[in-house]
Amino acid sequence: RDRMARLINRIPGPPYLPIIGNAIEMNVEHDELLERMMGTMKIWGRRVGLNRIWIGSLPYILVFLPETVEPILSSSRHIEKSRDYSYLQPWLGTGLLTSAGAKWHKRRKTLTPAFHFKILEDFIDVFLEQSSILANKLKREINNEAGFNIFPYVTHCTLDIICETAMGRRVNAQENSDTEYVKAVYEIGSIVQNRQAKIWLQPDWLFRWTLLHKRQENCVRILHGFSNKVIQERKELLKLQEQNKTVPTEHEEEYSIAFGHKKRLAFLDLLLEASQNGAVLSNEDIREEVDTFIFEGHDTTSAAISWALFLLGGQPDMQEKVREEINEILGTDTERRFTMKDLNSMKYLECCIKEALRLYPSVPVIARQLNEDIKVAHYTVPAGTTALVLTYMLHRNPETFPQPEKFNPDRFLPENVLGRHPYAYIPFSAGPRNCIGQKFALLEEKAVIASILRTYRVEAVDRREDLTLLGELILRPKHGLRIKIFPRTT
Ligand code: HEM
C-alpha cells in the first residue's frame, strides 16, 4: 500500500484529504462530472497527458493524450473493466463487454465471425425498414415550429434494429414504446446510471435494501424471461427447419424473417450454431451475449445518429453536400432502396459521422482496472489503479485537431488522416478490446441518416454552447437535442 501511494503520488494531481481523497470534488451530479474531470486535467495533467486523483482510498489516473492512452488500451494484459461496469452484470452477466481473462478471449474468438461483412449485408434490409418507419413517424413533427427532441425517436428505431438483428424478433418500440420489454430496457439503464452517480447505491449490500433493487429485479425478470423465451423458440424453429416441418401459425412471421426467401439470420442463430448444442455455449451464455448486443448496440448508435443529425442541422452547406452525394448515388431512380454498395460509397456522410463521433463520442470515458504495474509517460502506475481514458478530451486535443470545437468533416478525408497517431481518435476504443460492432454501427448510422436526409431537410434549434452534457455510460444532452424538419421537394 505504501509503495502504491508513493508511486501514485509522483503523478501530478490535485491536493487531497486523508481518507476521502478528492471524493468531494468528484462526487458531483453527472451534468458536472465531465467538466470537473476536464478541469482537473487541464490544471494538473496538461503537459504529460496524465494525472491522478484519489476517490477515498482508491487511486485513479485520467489519461487524455494519444501517447498516454496507447500503453493502456494497446496492452493485452490490461483488459479488465473497472468496477463501474459491474452494475450491468445483473442484466448482462459476464458477456463480452463485462467479462475478462480467458472467458473474454474465448468469447471474442467465437463471436468475431458473427460480424463478417457478408452477415452484415443481410441486416441492411432491417436498417432500411426501421429507418422508413422512423421517417414516417417524424411526419407528425413537420409543422412543429418550436422544434422537437430527436433523441427518443432515434432510440426507439435503434432498439427495433438491434432486437431484430440480434434476436430475430420484432419488439416494435417505434410503434409502441409502452411494452413490458421496451420499458424494462429503459428502466434498467436508468437504474445503472443512478448507481454510478450515487455513491451510497454502489455497495451491493446497501443497494439490496433499496426500492431500486426491487425494480431492478423486476426488470431483469422481464428481460431475461424474454431472451430465454426467444432462445427456446428459436431453437425449436431451427429444429423444424432441419426436419422440413410446418411452422405453427403464431411463428410464421418470425420464421419468414429467419428462413424466408431471403434466409436472414440473426446474431442469435449464429450463436446457436456456434454453441454446438451447449458444448461451447450454454443457453445462459447465449443469453448474456444477446443481451450485451442489445445494451451496447442501441444506445451508442442512437446517440451517434442523433448527434450527427443535430450537427448537420447546424451546417446547411455540409448537409447539402451529403444530400448531393445521396442524389448522385441514387441517380435517376430516386425511389429505390439503398444497397450495401450505396452505403459504402457514401464517403462524405462517413466523414460527417466520424466528425460527430469525434466531438460527441457515444462512450465518453473508457475505464480499465490495472492489475499489473504499467509505464505511462515516464511514470510507473501501480497495480490496483483504475485508469480512465477520456475520449471526449482526447478528441479535443488541438495538436491533432486544430480548432477542436469546430465541426469539420474534412478532418476525415483520407489525405488528412494520413500520419495521425492511431490512438488520437478512438470512438470505438482501440486495441484488443475495441468495439466488435463498429462496422455494423457505421452501416446502421449511414442507413438511418441517409434515409432521413433523403426525406427531410434538418435544422438545429438548440445551440451547442447552451447544451448541458451528461457524462454517463453514454454521452447525452441533459435536455435532449431539438431540431426542426422540412419535407424535401427535390
Ligand atoms: C456508434 C456506435 C457504437 C459506439 C460508439 C461503440 C463504442 C464502443 C466502445 C468505446 C467500446 C469499448 C468499451 C470499453 O472498453 O469499455 C465498445 C465495446 C463493445 N461494443 Fe460497441 N459501440 C457502438 C456500437 C456497437 C454495436 C452496434 C454493437 C453490437 C451489435 C456493439 C457491441 C460492442 C461489444 C460487444 C463491446 C465489447 C467488446 C469487447 O470487450 O470485446 N457496439 N463499443
From TrEMBL:
GO molecular function: heme binding; iron ion binding; monooxygenase activity; oxidoreductase activity, acting on paired donors, with incorporation or reduction of molecular oxygen
Record-given protein name: Cytochrome P450 4c3
Binding-site residues, heme: C435
Organism superkingdom: Eukaryota
Keyword Glycoprotein listed: no
Gene Ontology terms: cellular component: endoplasmic reticulum membrane
Topological category with respect to the lipid bilayer: Peripheral membrane protein
Main location class: endoplasmic reticulum
Pfam family, one: p450
InterPro entries: Cyt_P450 (IPR001128), Cyt_P450_CS (IPR017972), Cyt_P450_E_grp-I (IPR002401), Cyt_P450_sf (IPR036396), Cytochrome_P450_Monoox (IPR050196)
Subcellular location: Endoplasmic reticulum membrane; Microsome membrane
Keyword tRNA-binding found: no
Cofactor(s) for this UniProt protein: heme
Keywords annotated in UniProt: Endoplasmic reticulum, Heme, Iron, Membrane, Metal-binding, Microsome, Monooxygenase, Oxidoreductase, Signal
PANTHER family: CYTOCHROME P450 4C3-RELATED (PTHR24291:SF189), CYTOCHROME P450 FAMILY 4 (PTHR24291)
Native source species: Cryptotermes secundus
Family: Belongs to the cytochrome P450 family.
